[in-house]
């Protein structure tokens, strides 16, 4: 089934039956990258960008506030989208979906990059891996993202991101049930 070199044993294989050589220079390079704060932040930012793009595409396709009018000629009145030919309607819809998807992707990427970088920095400074790292990183990330809204928004962003980070971290740290 896994005929690719270095693909590993796959799901359902007994533990320890992996084909990966820990002395492989590529594996060492990947491990070194994921041990650095910049590497973790960069990977989180890229993955957040990808996930945000998919999420934005989904949300744009489900949105009810799609553009019902398209810009007309300069200085003219906007044109109703229903009066356009079908191909033009699809073009306008896909353009709107792309704009929304890209916007959401940028936001998710930024949040992922900031949160992972801040959490890694806090973990390195404290030399501990516990619930406080994610909570503090959530507070700082939320506060930084809300900085344009004033002190009340910074406090609210800090509290909301910290609470969400603590809830997710608590859930992920629970012992797993072996079924």
Descriptive account of the structure:
It is a single chain. The protein is mainly α and 179 residues long. Helices cover 64% and strands 2% of the residues. It has 5 helices and 2 strands. It has helices at 25-35, 37-61, 86-126, 131-145, 151-172, and strands at 69-70, 79-80. A two-stranded antiparallel sheet has the order 1-2. A hairpin with an 8-residue loop joins strand 1 and strand 2 (79-80).
What topology does this entry show?
Layout (H helix, E strand, L loop, with lengths): L24 H11 L1 H25 L7 E2 L8 E2 L5 H41 L4 H15 L5 H22 L7
Antiparallel strand pairs: 1-2
Helix pairs in contact: 1-2, 2-3, 3-4, 4-5
In short, what is this structure?
By secondary structure, this protein is mainly alpha-helical.
- What is the general shape? extended
Element order: H for helix, E for strand: HHEEHHH
Distance between the first and last residues' Cα: 26 Å
Radius of gyration: 23 Å
Strand order of the largest sheet: 1-2
């Amino acid at each position: 089934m896994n005929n690719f070199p270095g693909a590993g044993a796959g799901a359902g294989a007994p533990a320890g039956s992996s084909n990966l050589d820990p002395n492989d220079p590529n594996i060492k390079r990947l491990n070194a990258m994921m041990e650095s704060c910049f590497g973790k932040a960069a990977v989180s930012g890229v993955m957040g960008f990808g996930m945000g793009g998919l999420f934005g595409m989904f949300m744009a396709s489900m949105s009810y506030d799609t553009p019902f009018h398209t810009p007309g000629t300069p200085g003219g009145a906007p044109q109703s989208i229903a009066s356009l030919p079908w191909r033009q309607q699809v073009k306008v819809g896909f353009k709107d979906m792309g704009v929304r998807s890209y916007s959401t992707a940028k936001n998710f990427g930024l949040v992922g990059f900031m949160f992972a970088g801040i959490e890694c920095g806090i973990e390195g400074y404290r030399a501990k891996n516990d619930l406080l790292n994610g909570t503090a990183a959530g507070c700082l990330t939320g506060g930084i993202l809300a900085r344009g809204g004033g002190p009340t928004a910074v406090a609210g962003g800090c509290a909301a991101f910290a609470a969400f980070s603590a809830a997710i971290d608590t859930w992920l740290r629970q012992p797993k049930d072996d079924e």
